[in-house]
Amino acid sequence: MSPIVFGLPERQADFEKRNAKFFEVWPRLQDAIERGFSRTFTPADRTETIVYSLGRLVVEDFMEIILVCANGYGIAGLKLLRPMFEATVTARYLNRNPGETDTFLQYYNVHQRKGINLAKLVGIDVSAYVSPPKQNEIESAYQAIKHQYRWTVCKKCRTDREAASWTKKSLVAMAREVGLGTAVVGLYYLPTMQIHTTAVRLNSRFKDTPEGVAFQPGPQLKEADRSLAGAHACLMNILEEQEQRFGLGLDVEALKRDFANAWSSWLHEGEQGV
């Protein structure tokens, strides 16, 4: 049996060569990341906490995408790009709509209760993991805020249901509100097709041959480069949000120029979400 290889130097070198323009601007991007997130501060309110924290998660997502894509796992990069884009959109949206920050945060109580109920549904002894007093605490917290997350299904018969999200707005609607609408297909929809079990996911990895259906092994180079470009776009937007909220002295226009220079060929070809 062949040993598991955790790093593929040849693929990494090829990745760096293919994306040479990105690595030219990387030092300035890295400096902006350091200035934006290698710091401690006392947030003035919950919105500042969320804008900073979601931004820091976006940085983490970016480094994860670099890791897998440099080794040729482009579709893995797309899978990671989906939550990175959602965090970027949410940070930008809440920065512009701070009155909804508490609604976002309090949905945590809904998630906790859902987890407990799901565990009970499949026969798990929840008490072995969450004490009965803690379960009661979670239930009380949920009862206090549940009215915020029940949406009317039929006005005529006055029926409602529990919300599947903290907001009635779709991610697409929020993206359009914060100026990221054109990125939805490349950074949200197509990555989502790879996360879920879909025919799109199957078709991207299998092909018909004279002998039958065959899996396509090997690196996914185009997807790797597209993931890097999309991750760069998210990171650029989240840094712009840090500057807008905290006034760190980041040169946002220079970051945008660097992005345009790094991905000029993709932009000229009309790639969406880049």
Alpha carbon gyration radius:
22 Å
Total number of beta strands: 4
In helices, the fraction of residues equals 55-70%
State the secondary-structure class: mainly alpha
Oligomer status: single chain
Secondary-structure element order, N to C: HHHHHHEEHHHEEHHH
Going across the major beta sheet, what is the strand order?
A: 1-2
Overall shape: it is globular
Poorly predicted residue ranges:
none
Number of self-contained structural domains: 2
Can you describe this structure?
The chain is mainly α. It has 2 domains: 9-99 and 170-211 and 219-268; 103-162, no CATH class. It has 12 helices and 4 strands. The chain has a two-stranded antiparallel ribbon with strand order 1-2. The longest helix is centred in the last third of the chain and has 26 residues, at 221-246. It starts with 8 loop residues before the first helix and ends in a 6-residue tail after the last helix.
Short description:
Helix content is 65%, strand content 6%.
Question: Which features characterize this protein?
Answer:
12 helices, two-stranded antiparallel sheet, 274 residues, mainly alpha, two-stranded antiparallel ribbon, 4 strands, globular
